[in-house]
Write a structure and sequence with these properties.
Layout (H helix, E strand, L loop, with lengths): L11 E11 L7 H8 L7 E9 L5 E3 L9 E3 L5 E3 L7 H18 L5 E5 L16 E5 L3 H9 L4 E2 L5 H11 L2 E7 L8 H11 E12 L1 H7 L11 E2 L2 H9 L3 E9 L5 E8 L8 H12 L5 H27 L4 E4 L3 H10 L9 E2 L17 E2 L1 H7 L3 E4 L5 H7 L1 H5 L3 E4 L5 E2 L1
Parallel strand pairs: 6-7, 6-9, 7-8, 9-10, 14-15, 14-17, 15-16, 17-18
Antiparallel strand pairs: 1-2, 2-3, 3-11, 4-5, 10-13, 12-13, 18-19
The protein binds thymidine-5'-phosphate and zinc ion.
């Protein structure tokens, strides 16, 4: 059966079928792994498939993975989301600057700023609550509690039209609605935009940032395709979506996070705020680099196939020569990389990760043990596959002793390289 575009209903064109893969951020406990081996536990698998809509130009996954597969319901009725935004120092600084920009450009004393998907409060904590009112919306109980402990008011729910109405009734409309790395996860973007229309002040702004499709193409970062990321945006496809809801993009700003993101500034069409020349230029540029043609995505898929082959050949060669291999950072991206490329414990002895909740567990699909960075440093493997290429600078800095001792990192994009 033909699969339909979630934005405009047209037929989708698949360009990269990754095959059946597990949920990227679900680490198995030892008990689950044992249960799997005797058939008492099953890992949820789905078809990861990237597709392009020739009508509205939106790149998206063909299958939507229900939220409860990765925001896990617990026995006590709470939910758990195994991702803490504040793990990286670089990201803390990044979000402090984001908050600063929003407060100075768009807000006055006592205005309300709402963040959708506020996680552990990494961005909202940077607003001065003596000046503006902040509200986080975060469905993961565990991460929302971390934000609460920092004094940030939180609603532990998904953002819906109903919730938007409730917030307006109790707190009034929002001057700024923010989101980072979340909009791309929302299956029904029309419901999101209806909610934004209710919540946003007449001359309010909706500012969000997500990975930007041209950077994915440029970096061949195929591992950015995974369950939580339903959409892969460019300004052309986003502008089409916004116009369907009486809104428009009035500015854009490149960001050096998650392998290259775009911060997108949205206003109501009725708001007379000027539209930056950058918007016209970027739309022109997107057409020039072929973002509106399916063949561009097919060419990307061919490059990705080559990376997979080169990486597998290289790891096999190292193993044949007796080298011990480890992985570094159990990221969501690593799940696509390892499952799509077929890299399991026959190659990697373990993956080092700094998140305590992931340690002593096993990676989705390939069941590679997760260990602490201390274990990694002590073990000192000769080659380590870097599974967080977006944190390359930070990690190479942190592990300079490993590099000094002769350790090497293997990086697989934009093409295979050793550092
Ligand atoms: P992500 O934000 O790209 O998904 O990566 C986050 C994961 O990477 C998280 O589990 C922590 C891990 N990580 C390390 O183990 N060491 C590091 O130095 C960094 C930056 C991340
Ligand atoms: Zn479409």
């Amino acid at each position: 059966m033909d699969k339909k575009c979630r934005i405009c209903g047209d037929i989708l064109n698949v360009f990269l079928p990754f095959g059946k893969v597990p949920i990227s951020n679900t680490y198995l406990t030892k008990e689950q792994l044992d249960g799997l081996n005797i058939g008492e536990f099953k890992e949820y698998m789905y078809d990861l498939e990237a597709a392009f809509c020739n009508n509205c130009k939106m790149v998206q996954l063909t299958e939507f993975v229900p939220y409860e597969k990765y925001i896990t319901p617990q026995e006590d009725g709470s939910t758990e989301y195994l991702f803490y935004s504040s793990t990286s120092q670089f990201m803390q600084k990044h979000f402090a600057e984001f908050a600063q920009e929003i407060a100075t450009k768009f807000m006055k004393m006592n205005d309300l700023v709402v963040e959708i998907g506020s996680n552990d409060g990494i961005m909202l904590q940077a607003f001065d609550q003596a000046k503006v009112r902040v509200l986080g919306i975060e469905p993961g109980t565990n991460v929302a509690n971390v934000a609460r402990a920092k004094g940030i008011e939180n609603v532990t729910e998904f953002f819906t039209e109903d919730l938007a109405r409730k917030i307006v009734n109790t707190k009034g409309k929002a001057k700024a609605i923010l989101s980072a790395n979340v909009i791309l996860n929302i299956g029904d973007l029309h419901e999101l935009m209806r909610g934004i229309n209710i919540l946003m002040d007449d001359n309010g702004v909706f500012v969000f940032q997500d990975p930007y499709m041209p950077y994915i193409l440029e970096k061949n970062s195929f591992d950015q395709f995974y369950d939580e990321h339903v959409y892969y945006f460019c300004i052309t496809s986003l502008q089409n979506l916004m116009k369907m809801h009486g809104m428009e993009i009035f500015d854009v700003q490149e960001q050096d996070v998650h392998g290259g993101s775009m911060r997108v500034y949205v206003k109501r069409q009725s708001d007379s705020r000027p539209i930056s020349e950058k918007v016209r230029k970027i739309l022109e540029q997107e057409d020039k680099i072929g973002l509106n043609s399916f063949s561009t995505y097919q060419a990307f898929a061919e490059r990705v196939e080559r990376i997979k082959k080169n990486l597998r050949d290289f790891l096999r060669l190292l193993k044949e020569n007796g080298y011990k291999l480890a992985g570094y950072a159990a990221t969501c991206k690593s799940s696509t990389a390892l499952n799509y490329c077929g890299i399991g414990t026959e190659f990697l002895d373990y993956i080092s990760d700094s998140t305590p909740e992931k340690q002593r567990k096993f990676s989705p699909g390939k069941h590679i043990p997760i260990v602490s960075p201390e274990h990694f440093r002590q073990d000192n493997p000769p080659y380590t596959l870097l599974l967080a290429w977006n944190h390359e600078k930070e990690i190479l800095g942190k592990e300079k002793d490993y590099l000094k001792r002769g350790g090497k990192f293997i990086i697989y994009n934009p093409c295979l390289r050793i550092v």
